[in-house]
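Protein data:
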Amino acid sequence: MVESALNNIRLAEQRVNSMNVFPVADGDTGTNMRLTLENGFKRAQQTRHLGLYLKDLAAGMLLGARGNSGVILSQLFKGMSNALINKGIVNPGELRDSFILGYKTAYKAVVNPVEGTILTVAREGIEEVRYQIRGKISLEDSLKLYLEAMYRSLSKTPEKLDVLKESNVLDSGAYGYIVIIEGMYKYLIGEKVESNTELPEIKTETVTPLYFDENSNFVEGYCMEFLLQLLSSRVNVKEFNLNNYINHIKELGTSIVCLKEGSIVKVHIHTLNPSPIIDFSKQFGEFINFKLENMQLQHNEYSIVKNKSDKPAKKLGIIAVVNGEELENIYRELGCDYVIPASGNMNTSSSEFLNAIDTVNAEKIAIFPNNSNTFGAAHQAIDIARAKDRIFIVPTKTMIEGIVALQMDLPDDEPNSRMNAFHENIKLATTIGVTKATKNYEKGDFCCKINDEIALINDELVAVSTDVVSCLEKAIHSIDLTDKSGMLIYLSKDVSDELEEKLNAVLSNIEGIDYQITKGGQDIYDVLVGIF
């Protein structure tokens, strides 16, 4: 059922993404939900006990949760898992109760729940039919009732959320959740859901394993364990010579433990190159199970942890989510201890935040999410780490806010004073982003067509034009610059030298404002501007 659900959201991923309210190329709800469920599916081990499977699935989703929609989805499944943790099998009434605990868990996880979203649809859907799911009703009919009720709730989301009504769209997260449950239902009624194995390329950073990155040396090798089922079509099982097999793999690794039980060979070996061992073994049979662990990870972890224990911890460490190679360097120069590279959508998982938290050696840690869509994953990582007393989120909604806060930081001050200053200083920054419209859009007096240049100030659409420079100029003139003295401009990697010259000509005419133009390398926004 979960695999069918995953395939269903894969097929609908771009459709869910396109339900984005604004005409900005950061619609990623479908991608976030797919990645979250995908991470859980990969982690969960096959077992005949439903509760144990759901426990692994929910844990994987919690660690892989991306964006607010992914975090809420992971919480829905966490509630379901908690309800069914001791259940080897499930009946319709128990499934109903798991959906109820699912939405209650999700509501608790959201600081300020908003109606007209995935939360509403998950709640209203099951509450509408909870008393119909009883007696001898089947699982299939239970899910059908739930889905029909959620679709009715989905159709009413614009009535509950003005931003949906103004844009004439339904809530994308709610629709994505319905798609997932629908995939489960389709499996139960025998409808096969298949998706292309080659998904559309999504620009997201993969999670880098803790203690091992592009600068690491690899000398410790792999710890390799497997069970090899000998096959009579490839070898005479009774005459299989274990000693000859061991003598061959001795040349390929160390720390060998090898034994034969009936027609199964169990192998443990340390090696720098697993491929020859795999190829040699497959001459005699196929693997029943297989484990390959990077021992360099373990070695590096031991070394880093030991070094951390030998060095005094900083009073306050700083973690930031950043998009753009040049912007990453700027954050490091401003004193950021750990930069989490992100795509333009700022898709960052709870697992990536946990890696950062484990790496930074500090008594207290400040996290700069730099996008409201990243807050949920950061909060979830803090909950998983059980570190609410020492890890705090500075509610930066843009990378500009983070830069302004760090520029004004006084590293010698006490952590609490610095944290208070961060919160105050981010209020001083006004962020303008200029990008191309991804669809036609109309709201009030604002109207744009696909591929028009549009400008947003703190996520509100304020200007439209046919070119970047005039669009930015309109946006700047819409701001009261009376108390402003500085301007930071960051250009994407695609901005030409000619465009930079035109920007210089416009900005030099603004009196009383010092400005600086720098390559930022960010995605989505051709120009990011901070006015303070």
In short: The longest helix spans residues 67-84. The two ends are 52 Å apart (CA to CA).
